[in-house]
Amino acid sequence: MNTAAKITVIIPAYNEVNTIEEIVRRVQKTPFEKEVILVDDGSTDGTREKIAALAECYDNVRPFYHPKNVGKGAALHTAFKAVKGDFVIIQDADLEYDPRDYEALLEPLLDGRADVVFGSRFLGGPHRVLFFWHYVGNKFLTLLSNALANINLTDMETCYKAFRAEILQHITFKSRRFGFEPEFTIKVAKRGYRLYEVPISYSGRTYREGKKITWFDGLKAIFTLFRYRFFD
User: Fold this and answer.
1) For residues 39 and 59, what is the distance between their CA atoms, to the nearest angstrom?
2) Which of 116, 166, 215, 220 is least enclosed by beta carbons within 10 angstroms?
3) What's the DSSP call for residue 207?
4) 3-state DSSP call for residue 50?
5) CA-only gyration radius of the chain, Å
6) CB under 8 Å, gap of 24 or more: what pairs does 53-59 form?
7) At a CB cut-off of 8 Å and minimum separation 6, what does 146 contact?
8) What span, in angstroms and rounded, lies between the C-alpha atoms of 176 and 198?
9) Helix 215-230 crosses helix 180-190 at what angle (to 10 degrees)?
10) Dihedral angle computed from the Cα positions of residues 50, 212, 182 and 36, in that order, rounded to the nearest 10 degrees
11) In what order do the strands lie in the sheet with 195-199?
12) What is the mean pLDDT of residues 84-90?
C-alpha cells in the first residue's frame, strides 16, 4: 500500500484519562505519515493534562482545548479547521476501535476508488458481545439513513469514518454532539461522494467502563437524519 500520503487522525476526548495515552501510542504505531489532532472537550478527570504531556512527547501531536464540554461534534469542528493531511480518520479516544484497521480503511481512498470509507462493525470483524438493544437501535438508525439517502450501509453509527480532506472544503457540519454521525452520512450521500465500507474489529465497553452514548442520543439521531435530508 502507498503510505506516502499524509493522514490526519482526529481524536476528540472527554474524560478519557485511562485510555488517551494508550490510544495515541497505538495510532503512532500505524505505518503512515500522520499528524494527530487531540481535542480535549472540557475534561475534568486529568485528560487535559495527559493531552498536554502527549503534545510534548510527540512532534506530530497537535492539542486543542475546550474550556467546557460541548460535545463530540463540536470537538470535531475544532479539529476540522486545523487539518493539514490529505486524508482524515476519526478515532475515538477510548479503546473500542483498533488503529490496526487503518490500512483497510485507507486502501479504497489511497487507490482512488472512494471518497469516504465507513468501518463497519457488522461485516465480519471480531467484536465484543454486548447490548442487544444497542444493536437494534443501531440497525434501525442505519436502515433509516439508508432509506433517506438511498444507500446500503451496514453501520451508520460507526466511529470509524475515513475521507478525503478536501471534503471539508465543500461541506459544513453543524451537529455539536453525537448527531455528527447521521449528519455526516446524510450530507456525503446527498452530495454524491463515493462511499465504501470495510469490516473492522470492535472492542465495545459498558457504561461502567465509560460508554457515554444513550437512548436519548438515538432519538436525536432520528431528528438529525430528517433535518439534514430535507431541510439542509
Assistant:
1) 16
2) 215
3) T
4) helix
5) 16
6) 54/20, 54/21, 54/24, 58/24, 58/28
7) 152, 153, 156
8) 26
9) 20
10) 10
11) 61-66, 33-41, 6-13, 87-90, 161-164, 116-120, 195-199
12) 98
Distance CA 177, CA 68 (A): 13
Phi, psi of 177 (to 5 degrees): -120, -135
- Please tell me which residue, 200 or 178, carries the higher pLDDT value: 200
Residue 115 has which C-alpha cell?
471518497
Q: Report CA dihedral (110, 31, 100, 60) to the nearest 10 degrees.
A: -100
pLDDT tens per residue across span 111-155: 999 999 999 998 876 665 556 667 787 788 999 999 999 999 999
> Residue 149: what residue type?
A
How confident is the model at residue 28, as a pLDDT? Answer: 98
List domains and CATH numbers for the chain.
6-230 (3.90.550.10)
Q: What are the φ/ψ torsions at residue 85 (nearest 5 degrees)? A: -80, 175
d(CA 147, CA 143): 6
Site of grid cell 454486548: 130
Q: Residue 66: phi, psi to the nearest 5?
A: -95, 135
Q: Which residues share a beta bridge with 39?
A: 12, 64
> pTM score, two decimals?
0.89
Residues with Cβ within 8 Å of 183's Cβ and at least 6 positions away in sequence, in order, are 73, 173, 174, 175, 224, 228
Amino acid at 12: P
In the structure grid, which three cell numbers stand for residue 100, read together?
490496526
Task: Give backbone dihedrals phi and psi of 77, rounded to 5 degrees, phi first.
Answer: -55, -45
